[in-house]
Amino acid sequence: MEFIDYYKTLELDKSATKADVKKAYRRLARKYHPDLNPDDESSKKRFQQINEANEVLSDPEKRKKFDEYGKDWQHADQFEQQKQQRGQQRGGAGGFGGGQRQSYSGSFDDDNFSDFFETMFGGGARSRGTGRSPQFKGQDFNAELQLNLTDVYTSHKQTLTVNGKSLRLTIPAGVENGQTIKITGHGGPGAQGGPKGDLFITFKILNNTKFKREKENLHSNVDLDFYTALLGGEITIDTYNGKVKLPIKPETQSGTRVKLKGKGFPKYKMEGEFGDLFITYNITVPTDLSSKEKELYTELQKLRS
Amino acid sequence: MNLEELIATEELCERYSVEHTFIRSLNKSGLIEVVIVEKREYVHCDKMAEFEKLLRLHFNLDINLEGLEAIKHLLDRQNELKEENLALRNRLGLYE
User: Fold this and answer.
1) By percentage, how much of chain A surpasses pLDDT 70?
2) Which among B16, B61, B71 is the nearest to A135, CB-wise?
3) What whole-number distance in Å separates Cα of residue B76 and Cα of residue B71?
4) Which domain of life does this protein belong to (chain B) (predicted)?
5) What are phi and psi of A23, to 5 degrees?
6) CATH number of the CATH domain containing A99
7) pLDDT tens column, B27-73
8) Does B89 touch chain A if contact means CB atoms closer than 8 Å?
9) How far apart, in whole angstroms, are the C-alpha atoms of residue A273 and residue A245?
10) pLDDT in tens, A138-173
11) Over the stretch B68-92, which tens digit does the pLDDT of each residue have?
């Protein structure tokens, strides 16, 4: 457990007045407030430190205790006990009131105070929950779920563990890489009786197939031999869910793209509907020509020029 | 609109200890949509997260209405760009 210099956190020196603390808190909170820095974990962490420092330095009793023991905080309880025994102490350190509205109570649960704070001031030392404080929704949780592309071809159920709790959810077919879904009421507990926060799950989809995906459409490059491209014919290609035969027009050029309707990926939350599969032909030219082949090709070349 | 999905503004004022004029101002600035059903004012429950965010910014950080408007605009823009960035990154995967 590391000593936290709350003055340093708020960029203040020890002589700072209450007004200085308030001003510093406001200045830093405006910079690092989670509502202004969505999805930024480092800002959130910094804001929690700022909030904790403000909680201590804006409260005269807590500040006094912090100033008094500072780096010797580990022995604070012993000192307090000794004081009490000597009859020099009139009251305990708990039960700090205040009901400061400036403290961030929205997405901020009890676990967000450092061990240092807990040890120095105890669990009941928070200044929230007094008087007619407004109710706030609990902290929103963010989680990332990594899946293979093949996993999201069909809707399926999956059990997740979020903050020690198991949660069974249905992952709809066609969910996209980077897409976030909201699970209402599975976030942190609300403040002053407010509703629970929500759980946001962001999907990271790893493509473990040879197809490239663009939303509900799939793309694939197919090698086409020179003769079939030139004279036409039929080839068998792989689609996501099986093989299909594809007629090839004579004189097909390299880079030609054909669309196979409905052979793509499932459309998100549109059951039974699929995107398309786009095939791009890559014509392969024969190699290691025999002398006879070379002779014939030269003859063909002459015919064209 | 389903009444069950609406929260009366009086209830919000009571729960969050805010003045009714504050909600009206948010509505006037286009920050929160207030719907009127049979002469009673409501906010849709889907807008609660946004409402709470504005409340926190206003009360915790002392940001006035003009500031809230600017912040909302910038956060919306940031969101749009994030989505655009994601779509482009996914598209870029086609050429990698």
Assistant:
1) 79
2) B16
3) 8
4) Bacteria
5) -65, -45
6) 1.10.287.110
7) 999 999 999 998 899 999 888 889 999 998 998 888 999 999 999 99
8) yes
9) 22
10) 778 888 889 999 999 999 888 888 777 788 888 999
11) 999 999 999 998 998 899 888 888 8
In a domain, A130, yes or no: no
- Give the other-Cβ count within 10 Å of A248's Cβ: 20
Chain A nearest-CA distance from B12, in A, is 10
Q: Which of these, A267, A269, A247, lies nearest to A256 by C-alpha position?
A: A247
Mean pLDDT of chain A: 81
**For residues A55 and A103, is the Cβ–Cβ distance under 8 A?**
yes
- C-alpha gyration radius of chain A: 33
Query: Which residue in the block uniquely carries the two structure tokens 């509505």?
Result: B27
* A38:B75 CB<8 A: yes
Tell me which residue of A45, A187, A27 sits closest to B49, measured CA to CA: A187
Which tokens is B39 given?
């002469």
Q: Are residues A116 and A10 in the same domain?
A: yes
**Judgement on whether residues A196 and A291 belong to the same structural domain of the protein:** no
Query: For A212, which of B15, B55, B93 is closest by C-beta distance?
Result: B93
Question: CA-to-CA distance for B1 and A212, rounded, in angstroms?
Answer: 42
CB contact under 8 A, A176 and B90: yes
Q: Which domain holds residue A229?
A: 212-304
**A chain contacts of residue B91, beta-carbon cutoff 8 Å:** 214
Identity of the amino acid at A260: L
Kindly state the tokens that stand for B21: 């004029």
Domain count, chain A: 3
Dump pLDDT digits (tens) for A34-84: 888 887 888 888 998 998 899 889 999 888 888 887 766 556 666 666 666
Contact A106 B56 (CB under 8 A): yes
Q: What is the pTM of this model?
A: 0.58
- The shortest C-alpha distance from B27 to chain A (Å) reads 20
Cβ neighbours of residue A170 closer than 8 Å, sequence gap 6 or more: A155, A156, A157
Are residue A97 and residue A163 in the same domain, yes or no? Answer: no
End-to-end CA distance of chain A: 84
Q: How, if at all, do strands B40-44 and B6-8 pair?
A: antiparallel
How many domains is chain B built from? 1
